[in-house]
From TrEMBL, chains A, B:
<dbReference type="InterPro" id="IPR046335">
    <property type="entry name" value="LacI/GalR-like_sensor"/>
</dbReference>
<dbReference type="Pfam" id="PF13377">
    <property type="entry name" value="Peripla_BP_3"/>
</dbReference>
<dbReference type="InterPro" id="IPR000843">
    <property type="entry name" value="HTH_LacI"/>
</dbReference>
<keyword id="KW-0805">Transcription regulation</keyword>
<keyword id="KW-0238">DNA-binding</keyword>
<dbReference type="GO" id="GO:0003677">
    <property type="term" value="F:DNA binding"/>
</dbReference>
<dbReference type="InterPro" id="IPR028082">
    <property type="entry name" value="Peripla_BP_I"/>
</dbReference>
<protein>
    <submittedName>
        <fullName>LacI family DNA-binding transcriptional regulator</fullName>
    </submittedName>
</protein>
<keyword id="KW-0804">Transcription</keyword>
<feature type="domain" description="HTH lacI-type">
    <location>
        <begin position="14"/>
        <end position="71"/>
    </location>
</feature>
<keyword id="KW-0678">Repressor</keyword>
<dbReference type="InterPro" id="IPR010982">
    <property type="entry name" value="Lambda_DNA-bd_dom_sf"/>
</dbReference>
<dbReference type="Pfam" id="PF00356">
    <property type="entry name" value="LacI"/>
</dbReference>
Amino acid sequence: MAEIRLPKARRGRPRQAEVARLAGVSQTTVSLVLSGNKQGIALHPDTRARVLQAARQLGYAPDPAAQRLAAARNDLLGVFSFTATFPTDVAHSYYPILVGVEQEAVARGYDLVLFTGSSSAPARAGRADALDRVRLADGCLFLGRHVPADELRRLVEQGYPAVHIGRRDELDSLAWVGADYAEATAEVVRRLAALGHRHVVLVCETDEALASTDRERGFRGALAQTGLTGEVVRAADPAAEITGEWVRSQLAAGVRAFVAEETDTCAAWRALLTAVEDAGLTAPADLSLALLGAPPADLAHLPEPTGFDVPKAELGAAAVRTLTALLTAGAADCSPLVPCEFRPGRTAGPAPHP
Amino acid sequence: MAEIRLPKARRGRPRQAEVARLAGVSQTTVSLVLSGNKQGIALHPDTRARVLQAARQLGYAPDPAAQRLAAARNDLLGVFSFTATFPTDVAHSYYPILVGVEQEAVARGYDLVLFTGSSSAPARAGRADALDRVRLADGCLFLGRHVPADELRRLVEQGYPAVHIGRRDELDSLAWVGADYAEATAEVVRRLAALGHRHVVLVCETDEALASTDRERGFRGALAQTGLTGEVVRAADPAAEITGEWVRSQLAAGVRAFVAEETDTCAAWRALLTAVEDAGLTAPADLSLALLGAPPADLAHLPEPTGFDVPKAELGAAAVRTLTALLTAGAADCSPLVPCEFRPGRTAGPAPHP
DNA sequence: TCCCCTGACTAATGCGCATTAGTCCGCGGC
DNA sequence: GCCGCGGACTAATGCGCATTAGTCAGGGGA
């Protein structure tokens, strides 16, 4: 039942003015010394030393809010992820991205601030709605499909430096970085072709997401390029449509390679695995399977799927690079597509001869 | 290779002054209308409506940095967790706390900002070191044992509202909330007493942490209270010291109940389980076991240990309550101890008659 | 000797907002 | 007919800092 009391006559934190008084100089000089004197004004080393000493003695630390207001910068980068709560859970799929973000940000001298869309907060009039908080930082990374488009648009239109992680097309003038799903998918098809496959089927959920259409595009492109034949199956309910029987019929039609798309649920991949098992077949002996992405954690005990990995840390780092380019140069023209790495895995093999 | 360019002639975000011009009022009036007019200055409804309309039309959103500077508040609460990069292993145990923090914060009209100790950033002179970033927020929660004590002390001494999650004694005048390990441990002992046990042994690692000494205190207190006899065994290397043979010797001495402390590794509990198995015994038939905390995830397949659960979400919520009390009243006297809940589990039972 | 220049600083200003002291107008009271 | 008063606002100020214009003393050069 201890009582903690804030000092009422707020001794408060020291400001530059106090440091200045102690060092016997002006507030301007303190600012000059402490903020690196970018305009190259001549300063005597002794003065500099006195100021630094005084600052240390008083435990001075700049107020980031004031810095942001005065200089329009405070070297903070925001990360906004629109999830229920902070994505600090290791199991969270955003986590590896954040690791890359942090490394790159630190390397470039920025600190990070995380925001989340705290969903339920009633938007009072005149109150910053969720997205506007990010203005505390010099620029912000946005993560996830559910970032409200209209608020984001306003932010961007008002000139706020923002970079979206994951391809985002609705808003031009919104910078983004994304994984190159099309090329990665094409590579998987080429590998299958190299293994002797002539017919490939891609199984997807019915999904309008760019990540999905990108894969389909890469798939079709690679078919054309390699001369394979193939087909895209979009199933509203993969578990119901992708059955053992379906697999058999495909085999009868000469298909020996199946590719599934990775999604949140991985429903297509799961359905495919189940169907193959139901059909009494095994990969890669009887047929080849590939997953366009990484398998979900709960399937970690199964043989590693052939497919590709999204370099999530690299994605985060690329986003930071783009954002800092925006901040320092006012523009960014680095390629927003990050290549994925092919994963040989153990579910695809040479096409069995008929 | 798209080129994203920030508007150079920065059309920028609208400020209150622009809204004021459009609405034909003064900036003061805009501020009054939009920030809720807490000083109760009379305003004509029409004026109010015009201002709101203008604000909406321009897409006005307040600058949180300016708000913080002018009003010394922006209704943001910080959460600082000190880990090298985004928490990897600890993250898991913090996560439920964050959930509680977020719920309570939202309920009280605060938004959250998350900071992490990005350790490695070279501390430039005059640059805010990691902890000082939290000043962007009105107050901050600190999470974890590794928050640097000296920086935290400075923050607190300068009157910054801070609450530590987890007991923290070195700094008086630092508010904290923590789980009531002592009482929870005492309850476990009482339950064992009620089951007919007369002798209880507590197995710990050698640990100076408060969480550990609190448990020991609760244990000894409950022994005295119930009239049981007991002993505390602190093992530097539990796996080596807590053996099947050791268990047998304890049994020979009349002990039928063993209690282990929960730690990061849960070494004591693991050692105990192994030792009991080595001795060819089973709980709760031959003896009773209790764990002072929650079992680690990798032991989830075993029978649920008797013991107690730390209400992590509640802990987070309590921390937010304490912090907001600090913010609004300038002081907090709510009890910082959050009670734990007894978990019957399936490893403790009636003491076998000799 | 006078002037200009350079080095080492400081005064003043403004960022966008909240707040504190007014200001001004209309109306009821005496 | 003048005063006072409350309603509806606005002017001015300052938060803590960065930045832009100075200021001032001393040292050549002509």
